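Case study B.
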Amino acid sequence: MSALFPDKPRIAIIGSGALGCYYGARLAKAGNDVHFLVRSGRAAIMARGIRLKTPTERIQLRKVRSYATSAEIGPCDLVIIALKATANDMLPKLLPPLMGENTLVLTLQNGLGVEEPVAEVVGGEHVLGAICFIGCTRTAPGIVECSFPGLIMLGEFGRPAQGRTREVARLLEKAGVKCEAQDNLEELRWKKLVWNVPFNGLAIAGGGITTDILMADEGLRTLARRLMEEVVEAAAKFGHVIPRSFMDQQFERTGKLGKYSPSSLIDFREGRSIELEEIWGEPVRRAKSVGVPVPRLEMLYWLIKRLLAARKTNGKRR
Amino acid sequence: MSALFPDKPRIAIIGSGALGCYYGARLAKAGNDVHFLVRSGRAAIMARGIRLKTPTERIQLRKVRSYATSAEIGPCDLVIIALKATANDMLPKLLPPLMGENTLVLTLQNGLGVEEPVAEVVGGEHVLGAICFIGCTRTAPGIVECSFPGLIMLGEFGRPAQGRTREVARLLEKAGVKCEAQDNLEELRWKKLVWNVPFNGLAIAGGGITTDILMADEGLRTLARRLMEEVVEAAAKFGHVIPRSFMDQQFERTGKLGKYSPSSLIDFREGRSIELEEIWGEPVRRAKSVGVPVPRLEMLYWLIKRLLAARKTNGKRR
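Model:
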C-alpha cells in the first residue's frame, strides 16, 4: 500500500490548549509541516513558542507557524481538532478551507457524539477520532505541563481501522506519541467515559476536589465505582463489552496520579467551558434510549449543569 | 382525665436557635413558666430579649429567663429539645437535672433516629417527638424571622398519641402554634424527609441555591421528585404509606415559598453543623436494611458529607 502522507505532511492543529500545543509541537519537532490555528494567546505563542514539560523531557518549539484563520492555512493532509467540543459550532467556518480531496480530520475531543458534527461539515469518510489518555494542563499560552504522557488510541468514524489509520498512528509514533490504531472507536469512547464520568464529574460536584481526596473518601470512591458500572452497563447495551478488570485498572491508575486535578475541574475553576453534554449528557440520553437506568449519572449531569449555570450567573465565565 | 400540667407548667427550652426562641417565646407570652438553656448569645438575649417576626405578627419577650446550665433550671413539666441532633452527645449531661417523675421530653429535631438518644437518657416512656413544618431563621441571638409559621405535628415515641400528647398539643395551640397530635410519629418523620431530603440536600449539593432556583431548574426539579420517590419507597417498606398527592403538595408548597433558603443551606453557609446523619445517612441505612435501592439519596448523602468535610478543612466551621 502506498503511503498516504508525503514525507513532511502538512498538518493543521485547530486549537491551542494543552492537547493542541502538546501534539502539535511534537509533530513539528519531528519534522512535519505544522500550522497552528490559535484563537487566544497568539502573541505569547509567537513571542516565546511552545514549551512542553513531561516527567522525562523538556521540549521547546521556538518557531510556531500560527494563524488567526484557517483560510490562511489552506488545505492540509491532516487536520487535528484540539478544540473543546463546546466550540463545535465554529466547525462549519473553520474546517472547509483546510480540506483537500484526501484530507483526514482527526478529532481529539472527549466524550460521545464528537465525530458527528465534524462529519456533518466534511463528510464522514474523512473523519477519524482519537481518545487521548494523557494528563496535561496548559499553564499559560503555549506552556504545557504534562504529568502523564500516556497514549492515543486512534480509530475511524463508524468503520474499523484502515491502512490510513495506521499511517496516522505511525506519524504520531514518530513524533514520540504512543499511539494505537483501533477497530472500534465508539467502544473506546465509552471506555474513556468509564474514567471521565466519575473522576471529572465528582471532582466538580464534590466541591472542587483532586483525585487523591476522592480516592481517600470512602463514599465518593464507592460512588465512582457505581457511576462506572452505570456507564459499563449502558455501553454493553450498545454491544461494547467492558470487563470489570478495566474498572479496577482505572482505580489503580488513579491512585498513582496522586493529587491530580481532572481537566474538567481545572476548566471549571478557571471559568472555561466544559464538555457537559459530551461527557455526561449524551451518555445519559443514549443509556435511556436503550432502557438502561443511570440514576447516578443523570444526577451528576444535572448537578454539574446547575453548578455551571451558577458560575455563569456569578459572572466568572470567560 | 385529669390535666397533666398545672395552670402555668414549668417548661425548659434546650437550645436558643430559631425553633427554641420561636416556640419558647410564644409559650412564655402565653403565660407559661419558661426557662431557656442558652449556649451562645446569652448576653444579647438577656439584654434585648427575644423578638419574633412573622408575616402577621411581631412578638417581643422582653424578660427571658435564661440559664447556662440545666442544673440551674431544675425539674420541669415539659422539656423541649430544640438543639441540633449533632449536639445530642450533650444530652446525658443536659437532661437529667430537668427530669421529674412525670416530665415529658419533646424533641423537635429533624430526621430519623432522633428520639432514640433521648430515650436512652430519660427512658422511652418520657419521650415525645414533633415535626415542625415551619420556615424560620435566627438572624441574630434571640432574633427570629418566621416566613411561614406552619404547624407542629406531635406524637409519642413508639406509641400512638396519649391523653398527654393532646395536652401538650393544647398547650402549644394556646401559645398560638398550630399543633396536631398524631398517632404515628415515625411515619411523620418519613413524611418530613420527603421535603427535607431533596430540598435541603440539593440546596447544598447544587452549589448553594434557594428553592426558587431549584424549582426553575428542570433537571433538579426532576431529581427532587426522584429523591422523594426513593424516600417514599423506603418508608413503604416500613409500613408507612405516603401517597403521590403528598409529593405533589410538597412541590406546590415549595413553589409558594419563593426565594427560600432551606435551613440546612443557611447552616452550611454559616459554617454551622448540619443533621447529615438524621436527614440523609439514617434514611439510606434504613432503606438498605430492607433492600430498597436509594441510589440518588445515597449519592446525595456522600456528596453533602464531602462538602461538609471540605468546609471543615477550609477552617470555616464554628
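Chain B has a mean pLDDT of 94. The remaining cases will be described in the next quarterly update.
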